Amino acid sequence: MPMDRGSTRAQGAAPVPPYCDHCGEPAAGGHAACATARELEPPRFCPDCRRRMKVQVVPTGWTATCVEHGTRHG
Amino acid sequence: MPQILDRARARVLDGGAGLDQAEILEILRLPDEDLPELLQLAHDVRMKWCGPEVEVEGIVSLKTGGCPEDCHFCSQSGLFASPVRAVWLDIPSLVKAAEQTAATGASEFCIVAAVRGPDQRLMDQMREGVKAIKEAVDIQVAASLGMLTQEQVDDLVDMGVHRYNHNLETCKSHFPNVVTTHSWEERWSTLTMVRESGMEVCCGGILGMGETIEQRAEFAAQLAELDPHEVPLNFLNPRPGTPFSDRPVVEGKDALRAIAAFRLAMPRTILRYAGGREITLGDLGTREGLLGGINAVIVGNYLTTLGRPATADLELLQDLKMPVKSLSATF
């Protein structure tokens, strides 16, 4: 069953996810432009499996749901 | 002082009449050194004909993505390789979003759907949603659901929707370069029905979609002819996967010149900062726009992208001694 996952994780505890949540490409190799874009955009790709997520933006936040890895919010 | 500013002062500030297309073009061609004076004039016009209040609005997407139209700027078109997936917002979440918007002091809450026009399912969802919001929250409800039939216009009036947004997006001569699946005239037709229904007309567009300066002036003049209650002014935020993904962002000074020009074309309208201002103008530009003709803002996030925190805009309004328009002032 998908889990609910907040956007904040314990520092040092979580491994680096394998995919960029902005472009869906492998996270290795640097995604500076994606990080800049993400300041004004919600994530679109699941960082764990690169599936496109269902994203709902509301005036005060967003939720992004991967069918396999659950819902993130910010 | 450039002659056009003298004429604008007499015609717009003193007389309350908007500039015509040729005059708007002159404004858009003013050099950078005249920009401070232009913005001051636009601000004076706004203060005289609209007052110091700022209308604050939140927007939310009831149905996101999967749109059959090909608006080249839009990440919600199902025809482009955009990462935006189709999703519907449920009614409890819609009401919660309205409550959170009202908590910012906003008087307006606009429900938006990415569709060509509403089908029965969407109209049913709207009826249920508007009713639930009105029972729970003290806020004005607006809607943006694409092109309407007369029956749908009547239904929205019956639901208590007080304002309808339908952007012309750009001027008539540039529209075919932006949208090919429907026409500028079809949009105008919906706007005409909305006006005749008694709902307030909200109609604006997006600058930076490859239009010339002349076409920017044409657009302002066409909006002035429509005489909408509100004009939301967006600046293109190029979206990945759309045909306009590689367009350059509008330069800050050009954006401010356009804000002032649109104010001088429509001295009495609600001129709202909408999407794209964060990347075009940043924090400083938001302040300059509010001192250059803007008298309304969308607070918080947009439909698929994120905006400045509502608190940042509200603190700025406090700094500028611009009161937020209260709900009672809208009746």
TrEMBL record, chain B:
Signal peptide: none annotated. One of its GO terms (biological process) is biotin biosynthetic process. Residues 52-277 form the Radical SAM core domain. It catalyses: (4R,5S)-dethiobiotin + (sulfur carrier)-SH + 2 reduced [2Fe-2S]-[ferredoxin] + 2 S-adenosyl-L-methionine = (sulfur carrier)-H + biotin + 2 5'-deoxyadenosine + 2 L-methionine + 2 oxidized [2Fe-2S]-[ferredoxin]. It comes from the Bacteria. Binds 1 [2Fe-2S] cluster. The cluster is coordinated with 3 cysteines and 1 arginine. Binds 1 [4Fe-4S] cluster. The cluster is coordinated with 3 cysteines and an exchangeable S-adenosyl-L-methionine. Pathway: Cofactor biosynthesis; biotin biosynthesis; biotin from 7,8-diaminononanoate: step 2/2. [4Fe-4S] cluster binds at residues 67, 71, 74. GO terms for molecular function: 2 iron, 2 sulfur cluster binding; 4 iron, 4 sulfur cluster binding; biotin synthase activity; iron ion binding. Its cofactor is [2Fe-2S] cluster; [4Fe-4S] cluster. CDD domains: Radical_SAM. [2Fe-2S] cluster binds at residues 110, 202, 272. Its EC number is 2.8.1.6. It is an enzyme of class 2 (transferase). Catalyzes the conversion of dethiobiotin (DTB) to biotin by the insertion of a sulfur atom into dethiobiotin via a radical-based mechanism. Homodimer. PANTHER family: BIOTIN SYNTHASE, BIOTIN SYNTHASE, MITOCHONDRIAL. Belongs to the radical SAM superfamily. Biotin synthase family. This is Biotin synthase. It comes from Actinoplanes cyaneus. The gene is bioB.
